[in-house]
Design brief:
alpha/beta, 28% strand, globular, 7 helices, 5-stranded parallel beta sheet
């Protein structure tokens, strides 16, 4: 999927978060949205995901040379992981995987492979409400990487991670993002040093 931003601007009240962004994200490439905390990276990712409407401008989504306008169809092509996205607390990990895989196609062979790659095998029967913040983030990233979607959006992907978990994240990027559009919102260079292009929010204030 290609995503074209055309004169995208967003305002909350009287405060402009960003103005007049024109940018094209292309299938198979990796991008970083950079800027200091509070600069609008998360807001822009939400607009790109089609979950937040811009104040002005348009986002165009093209998949296999076809422009997609239906919101539910756009959602099927995007996986989004961020610390502020909620998980279903009353599911066990195994139940959550089954629920997710019932409506989203996975790019792995089995649930066991998911658990192994996520390094969460021993927690399959643990309720999500009992997961640590680091485990929750690992689960969100694992779902994003291992769901069959052409677009992955990641906001602060290594939040709550130690050095070992950061290494895991970088390996997952190598393994699961080939030929997909990856967009990362971050101000930590190690999270996006492999990205070929950057969009600086500060350029659109």
């Amino acid at each position: 999927m290609n995503i074209q931003l055309e004169n995208i601007s967003k305002r909350f009240g009287f405060e402009w978060i960003f103005k007049q962004i024109n940018f094209q994200f292309e299938q198979g490439k990796q991008y970083a949205i950079v800027g200091p905390n509070g600069s609008g990276k998360s807001t822009l990712l939400k607009v790109i995901s089609n979950g937040l409407m811009p104040t002005s401008g348009n986002a165009q989504y093209t998949f296999k040379d076809k422009i997609i306008t239906d919101e539910s169809e756009i959602a099927k092509h995007i996986m989004y992981a961020a610390p502020y996205i909620s998980l279903i607390e009353d599911f066990t990990l195994s139940e959550l995987y089954d629920f997710h895989a019932s409506f989203r196609k996975m790019n792995i062979a089995s649930k066991n492979e998911f658990m192994e790659m996520a390094q969460l095998e021993i927690h399959q029967n643990k309720y999500i409400k009992n997961f640590s913040s680091g485990m929750r983030q690992r689960l969100k990233l694992s779902l994003a990487f291992m769901t069959d979607s052409p677009v992955i959006l990641l906001d602060e992907p290594t939040s709550n991670f130690d050095a070992k978990a950061i290494d895991w994240y970088l390996e997952m990027v190598k393994k699961y993002t080939t030929n997909r559009l990856l967009i990362i919102g971050s101000n930590q260079e190690y999270e996006f040093s492999f990205c070929s292009q950057q969009l600086s929010i500060l350029s659109y204030k």
